[in-house]
Model the fold of this input.
Amino acid sequence: MSATTTLVHGGPVLDVRGGTWREGAAVVVENGYVTQVVGREAVPHETDAEVIDADGGHILPGLIDAHAHLMSRSGVEADADLITRSVIDGVITARRFIESGITTVRDPGCKHRGIHTLRAELAAGRVLGPRAFTAGPNVVGSGAPTDWRNVFADGNDAVRRAVRLERLAGADFIKLVLSHTTADSDWSLCLRYLGDEEIATAVHEAHLLGARVGCHCEGIDAARAAVAAGVDVIDHGLTIDAPLAARMARQGTVYVPTLWAFRTETHLTVGRTITEDQAAVYEERIGAVHEQSVRNAVEAGVTIAAGSDPIHWIPARDVLVCELEALTAAGLSTADALRAATLGSATALGEQDRLGSLETGYRADVLVVDGDPLADLRALGRPRLVMKDGRVLVDLRDDKKASEALWADIATGEPASERQPEIWLRRD
Done:
């Protein structure tokens, strides 16, 4: 083994496909990639490789958040103040994510294209944080209210131009805003912002340009239109019935439910976007329906990807763990939940052959945690070491005080900022 080789060992290694631990294994890393996972006894006793001893920790792939906003959401008005604040927020949030074991983020919407610049700075290592795949401004019809307006597109030709514009501007994937269920109708009315033909045109054009398509989707009609059009990823998908779930499974449509972000309890206690008086109606029309949608998808064999869609601008460090807990409450096993936050999320990005697993040829994104997350997902909130592309970015193995301080902060579930997106506040 060469001096450029790194060995990570000292704890069991997660086989995310099988949902089991491989005891006594070592992850061999060269030039930013995993070259093999071998039994520790297969490694020469005398080696010039760098050795990272996980010392009893559990070793798994870095987590992937399939729906997280680093800088700002797509559903706000972009002015100088927002852009300035969002740059600061992005640097802070990126650091908090990597310190929490999230090595890759799928960012499905920012009001301004500065998100692509942040992506480049993260890739270059000038900003500490996860690898980012970014959509930038979303494509939406002009019938949407102010807080959803990004790139207006009315009619097939305008949609086609909008997709080309965003791809040319640097979008890794295209994000459409299809529909929204309105609170002022007690969540009984779902408005459509793009028609069936417009959705199909957007998907066709994006695929011609080599880009995947995700969509903000609420309501069964929009979901059916999206799947029929060949959308790659359904984001939120508040209403997915059993027949639609079966079609998603057949087509390989990935589902990012962001279940925790839409739960009744989350809106009551974390977002404070509904009142106690509204809770019962919200639960009946959104919360319970959404959870059943996830159950339908699980039953059908749909690929689930874990996305946090955090409510606050600088969210709590445990938002992805909260999502995994919500997914297990909806029928996923802990192994399935970990797969959703690794290979499932990688599949949402179209990167399932490069990210989300510790296998030969995969990016060397390695997370070492204190405890067994298959037994208790909260073990993910106790990171000891985080490696991205074979580089150690967080190492708390020998700093008990620092590690306990980080773990305590993660355990509080407190955001770093009380500020919430204007999307919750503006409906004009």
The longest strand covers residues 33-39. The chain has a mean pLDDT of 93. The two ends are 63 Å apart (CA to CA).
